[in-house]
Amino acid sequence: MKDYNCCVVVVGAGPAGMAAAISAKKNGAKNVIVIERENRMGGILKQCIHAGFGLQYFGEELTGPEYAEKFSVIAKDNGIEFMLNTTAIEIKDKTLVCVNTEGVINIHFGALVLAMGCRERTRANLMIPGSRPAGIYTAGTAQKLINVFGHKVGKEVVILGSGDIGMIMARRVSLGGAKVKAVVEIMPYLAGLTRNKIQCLDDFDIPLLLSHTIVDITGVDRVESVTIAPVDENRRPIMEKAETISCDTLLLSVGLIPENELTRSADVALSGITKGAIVNQYKQTDKPYIFACGNVLHVNDLVDHVSHESEEAGKFAALYAAGELDAGEAVDVMPGDGVRYVCPQKMTCTEANVDFYFRTAVPGRGTTLTISDDTGVLVTKKLVCTTPGTIEKLTLPADKAKAVCGNIVVRAEHKEA
Amino acid sequence: MKTDVLIIGAGAVGCALARELSKYNIKVTVCDKNDDVGGDASKSNSGLFSTSATMPVGTLECKLRTIAHSMMMNICKDLDVPVIECGSIAPILYPEQLETAKALTERAFLNGVYDYEILPAQDILEMEPTLNPDILGGIYSPRDKQANQFILVSAMAENAAENGVEFILDCKVTGMDVSNGKIHMVHTTKGDIEATWIINAAGLHCDDIAKMVDECDFTVHPRKGEFYVFSHDTPVKVSHIISSVPSPKTRGVLVIPTVDNNMLVGPTADDVEDKSDRKTTAEGLASIKAQALNMVPGLRFEDTITQFVGARPAREPEGYDIRFSEKVKGYVGISGVRSTGLTASVGIAGYVVHGLKEAGLELERKVGWKRTRKGIVRFADKTVEEKDALIKLDPLYGKIICRCEQVTESEILQAIHRPVGAKTLDAVKRRVRAGMGRCQSGFCSPHVIEILARELGIPEEDVRKRSENAYMLDKGI
């Protein structure tokens, strides 16, 4: 077994991990190690060959691999050490246990940043009945098979879920010559970004069926058809109106779940809603030497947000490792009416601006977003419309953050649905 | 090709028979229509080794299962098949079940099972605190056990192959030339086979084979059983097999702790026509959930990682039937083997081999028959120090392919290259659990496709999920 010491260790070399590592280094961490299980940096960005990344962060439109490449160049220029083909398997106090083909490696750290990303929800999570033939993929797996491995997954495709990856894959398989027969969404509104509906579905004449779901899958060897049905207001399928669509492939884009199994080995408190760690504004978990950022913390919509958030995590991890972060007593930050969750879930006494990222519970127009404490509303922001598919951000200015009284509640109120 | 004994069907019974016959100096061949051993019912069930307590008294099924149950622990030890000796509890939920429970203990006594007893609610709840606190008592059966059924079947096959048995997979029997009371030739999708003895161990499809020799005075249809598989980290887990107080048709819904640490909850028992029907149904899953929650109220069904269907062969008329044909010389028909067959398989094997001897097959014991087989060492189960040592021995133990179940490339290569090895994704999954975890193969399947193609020397487009045309990718045709 080998032993290494470092100020900050980061688990995962995707966009979150790279941004956190660079920021940790820039904020004084002498040595920063990034652990990555795959043979290249970039995480899921490697398979996202479409454009649309970086508009906010770099002010230009990039593909996923381009966005990742920019970060990996900066990371290397900053002298960050990457351990590729290496898997982190356990956190034991302030030691990260990793394995690669040379053996077990124990990395003793001052601070650790979790940046493992997320996994896709599966057919089983939704308990979709039917047979279990070949040809059923989560959208991200299909994306990897097509864009990284150069395969084709099928000719006639139905997609369940209108998440961003699902819509992007609808376009991708269409460009590869497959026919996308329908994108089926159980909710009465889109799960992903509106721009993806326009660019990926409308431009390719792919029908979007809202308030519909899949009630059966048929096929012994390979998928032969799926049966779809409209749902009532309680999301129960109306079986009398079911119809069968023949297809050889079913892609699922039905949500993402932060991959927190490693986090559990360290007994870090997790949120039941985000499925990520509960953190304060420094992205610090209840184990003060462990920080979390990116999709392992909460599922983001834009990588640009991830980069910003992760820079915070890296910065404060470096400060913690140097003994310069002393988070005091925390208040709770809670989702109020119209808000599904808020991240961070805790805020400690501070003299700096604090950003809250959150998702609304339902879509609506004429939305008023507020931050309140026991004394009343502290911040108000008005938007033309909001949807749960988009992450909203409110900033609590330093002067108000400093004087917070009691717990903080974030609310969203729509004038019309 | 020519062989002394041809076994049709590589399920639990076929593989147990193959291993038993591999002790002798004869040529034994096993063929199966699937890509892998494990058959239909044998690979998709609850993995229980139960005593014969509730069996119909005095039947061949009861006798063979009783014998087999006493042999099973030794066989699992020889074949390195992990077993959990957890015992089972059938909670008594309603007053009318008390009568049934009493009758069952009487029957257990007649079946030679003396440790099947009714315990007071308080004692049962102390043993299994996850149970519904309103129970009136429970039947405790301490010798019921759980194993990974596929690992057992494939271990028997592997051991048989090491001892010289030939397995021909993806090989469907399409017909037989029968005349003058003799089978002259067996036609298969992999060529013709000439055999002195032909044993029909085709389970769900044994009627189709029996028809070929006109020995089919029964019917077989699938009795579908749907199951949920729970994630390792679900908070409420049982430590005993929890079963419903059985009814004549089925044992009802069970909540089963497994050697792999994934609870199983199921099955349903739905008689269907179509032998290829493996569909889960919304109604079936809902009914399992309701019954299971009635017994174990804390179960978290949102923590299930998959649901599946197994098909037990339901024979009409019921009951084990092992027949050395008088009409067609050399034909042995095994039918009526249902869910009890996993346990009973090793008893059936001994019984059939004895019958073959009686019928004149000369069985000369082999010198140096290999009794034992070692399982594939699982990286995930090892301590950090042991992991380091494993990687030093084989660096590919340091390359994790399936992150959810921590399965390494070394394990996958062993699964592929062992005797009767894996040729498909499901076959790899069943042997070493790659793809068996929470992401259900989302992350590892592209890598496993790549490894299978490389190791089998086939294009990636030809890699299958399982039998026949279950291709993972678009073949471009």
Give me some keywords for this one.
heterodimer; A: 417 residues; alpha/beta; FAD/NAD(P)-binding domain; Immunoglobulin-like; 7-stranded mixed β-sheet; 5-stranded parallel β-sheet; 9 helices; 21% helix; B: 477 residues; alpha+beta; D-Amino Acid Oxidase, Chain A, domain 2; Arc Repressor Mutant, subunit A; 3 domains; 9-stranded mixed β-sheet; 8-stranded mixed β-sheet; 12 helices; 22 strands; 23% strand
Tell me about this structure.
- The complex is a heterodimer of chains A (417) and B (477).
- With 417 residues, chain A is α/β, with parallel strands linked by helices.
- Chain A has three domains: 1-119 and 256-327, FAD/NAD(P)-binding domain; 122-254, 3-Layer(bba) Sandwich (FAD/NAD(P)-binding domain); 328-417, Immunoglobulin-like.
- Chain A is built from nine helices and 27 strands.
- Chain A has helices at 15-26, 64-77, 123-126, 139-147, 164-175, 194-201, 261-265, 303-321, 398-402, and strands at residues 2-11, 32-35, 51-53, 62-63, 81-83, 87-92, 95-100, 103-114, 118-120, 136-138, 156-160, 179-184, 208-209, 212-218, 225-230, 243-246, 249-252, 256-258, 290-292, 330-335, 339-343, 346-348, 354-360, 364-373, 376-386, 392-396, 408-416.
- In chain A, strand 1, helix 1 and strand 2 form a beta-alpha-beta unit.
- The longest helix of chain A is centred in the last third of the chain and has 19 residues, at 303-321.
- With 477 residues, chain B is of the alpha+beta class.
- Chain B has three domains: 1-82 and 145-218 and 317-375, FAD/NAD(P)-binding domain; 88-142 and 222-310, D-Amino Acid Oxidase, subunit A, domain 2 (D-Amino Acid Oxidase, Chain A, domain 2, 2-Layer Sandwich), CATH 3.30.9; 379-462, Orthogonal Bundle (Arc Repressor Mutant, subunit A).
- Chain B has twelve helices and 22 strands.
- Chain B has helices spanning 12-21, 60-78, 95-110, 121-127, 149-162, 206-212, 282-295, 341-358, 384-393, 409-417, 425-432, 445-456; strands at 2-8, 28-31, 48-49, 83-84, 88-92, 117-120, 137-141, 145-147, 166-168, 173-179, 182-188, 191-200, 219-230, 241-243, 254-256, 264-266, 270-271, 304-316, 321-324, 331-335, 400-402, 407-408.
- In chain B, a hairpin with a 2-residue loop joins strand 10 (173-179) and strand 11 (182-188).
- Chain B is globular.
- The model of chain B has no long low-confidence stretch (mean pLDDT 96).
